[in-house]
Amino acid sequence: MGATREPASQPEPAALTSATGGPPGRHLGRTQTASKLRSLLREYYPAFLATFEDLTSREARATLHLAPSPADSSRLRKNSLTAALRRAGRRCGIESATDRIIAGLKTQQLRQPLVIEAAMAAQARAFARTLDTMAGNITNLDNALATAYQSHPDSTIISSFPGLGRS
Question: Which residues of the chain carry a pLDDT beneath 50?
Answer without folding.
Answer: 8-9, 23
